[in-house]
Structures are given as structure tokens and as C-alpha cells.
Amino acid sequence: MGEGLRFELLGPLRALGPEGEVPLGAPRQRAVLAVLLLQEGRPMTYPALVDAVWGERPPAQVRNLVQKYVSGLRRACAGAAPGGSGPELRWTGSGYVLSGAVIADLAERRALLAQAVAARDGGDGGRALELAGRAEALWRGEFAEGLAGPFLAAERLRWAEKRLMVLEARLEGQLDLGRYHECVHELVRQVARHPLRERLVGLLMLALYRSGQATDALVAFEDARRRIAEEMGSDPGPALRALHERMLRQDPALLPESVLAS
Fold it and tell me: Which residues are 96's β-sheet partners?
């Protein structure tokens, strides 16, 4: 990140300077910036940039548009960080390079999750959950929200999956710590948002089962089985089916020792 200039992509793209948010121009200009930021200092050829932002059918005046947007971004960066301390966008002869810029919220998220994994591996589940929650709180919306183009659309899908995986890991960690009742409501909401996400369904079933709602856990499976059959024409996967079967036979291993001893 250039001194005094902070870029963020976990939501709508924004750049924050010493005087507040920096105007970044029209949506396509912002898309050009987002694509170049995601190259992390690697050069990007002109054809690759056009394909990333406009796809297979760019407008006839696309070369002029690229030059206009690059000039606009140079002015924005220079105005936000005077004295040459900000990011530099230049043409190298082989491609455009944005140097001196880091996507700050992505870097912070990566560091927090690495610390969370270390805490979990060290046996401190509570600390791991706290760090994962801080990483999750960095999200302000969808990844690069509102910006068009095939490259950013693909990145948005990839980051949505990564975000869901962290959410699932955090909820699983809460279950491991015995926080069954407080997990149920959030899992109900998440299953409603992602009805075909079998790991979320399995976590909801476990939260219900361990909080004394075994019948509701079995109903959750049947609801998921019906949705999967209707939407995909198939059965739930082996992991979810195995969990269901263990609940039907009341496998003692599904309950933590604290419940079995009560």
C-alpha cells in the first residue's frame, strides 16, 4: 500500500487516504483499478486487461477508454498521496503495472485467518473463533461489489466460496466449544440462504441434535433431501447421509462427553 493510501475490496472497491475516501471515477475505471490491484504488482498486457474488464466484445473505442481510465487513476493516486508517496501505475512495454499498492483488507484477513489456524492447532479454540470473527467482520458486502467484467465476476464467485468456508469453519468451532443453542439460529439463517450447502445442513443437524432437538435435526435432513432432489435430481452426499444414519441409531459419539455424563 502506498503511504497513506489504503485499498479495500471486501465489499465495494474503495481507497482511503489521509483526507478520507478517494474518488476513483466511473465504474469501468474502478473495474480497471480492481483488476490491476489483483495482479499484485505483476504486469498485465493490454489484451488481457481488455478481456478482464470488457470480455469478448469490447467497444470499438476500447483503446481510448483504457488510456482515459489509466490517466484518471494516475491522477487519483497522485492527488491522494502527493509527493510521489502513492502507488504508481505505469506501462512497462509489455503491460500495465500497478506498484506500491496492496489490498489492505485482504492482507489483514489473510493474517487473521493464519493466526486463527495457529490458535486452533495450539488448542485455543476460543481465541481461534475470536480471530476468525474479526476476519469475517472485514467484509462490507460482496467482493468488488458492483463492478462488472468477467474477471471480477469470477473472482466474486471464488471469494464467496472462500467466505462460506470460513463461516462454516467458525460455526463448526462454536459447536466444538459446546455453543449449540447460539449456533442454531445463525445456522437456520445460513441454510435458508444456501439451501443446497450440505456442510451447513450437517452443522445445523448437529447443533439441533446436541441441543436436545433430535426430531428437528431429522426434519432438517428431510428438508435438505427434498430440496436436493428437486433442484439437482440427486440424493444428499455420503457425509450428510452418514450423519443422518448415525442420528437414527442414536450414536453416542455424536454427543459430547458433558451431555453423556449428565
Answer: 44, 91
Q: Which three cell numbers stand for residue 181?
A: 443453542
Number of Cβ within a 10 Å radius of residue 96: 21
What is the dihedral angle through the alpha carbons of 247, 250, 255, 257, rounded to the nearest 10 degrees? -160
Is residue 130 within 8 Å of 142, Cβ to Cβ?
no
154-165 tens-digit pLDDT: 999 999 999 999
Query: Is residue 235 packed enough to be buried (19+ CB in 10 Å), middle (13-18) or exposed (0-12)?
Result: exposed
Nearest to 29 by CA among 40, 41, 37: 37
What HEC string does the chain produce? CCCCCEEECCCCCEEEECCEECCCCCHHHHHHHHHHHCCCCCCECHHHHHHHHHCCCCCCCHHHHHHHHHHHHHHHHHHHCCCCCCCEEEECCCCEEEECCCEHHHHHHHHHHHHHHHHHHCCCHHHHHHHHHHHHCCCCCCCCCCCCCHHHHHHHHHHHHHHHHHHHHHHHHHHHCCCHHHHHHHHHHHHHHCCCCHHHHHHHHHHHHHCCCHHHHHHHHHHHHHHHHHHHCCCCCHHHHHHHHHHHCCCHHHCCHHHHCC
On whether the pTM is more than 0.85, the answer is: yes
Model confidence pLDDT, tens digit, residues 17-30: 888 899 999 999 99
Q: What is the pLDDT of residues 182-204, one digit of tens each?
A: 899 999 999 999 999 999 999 99
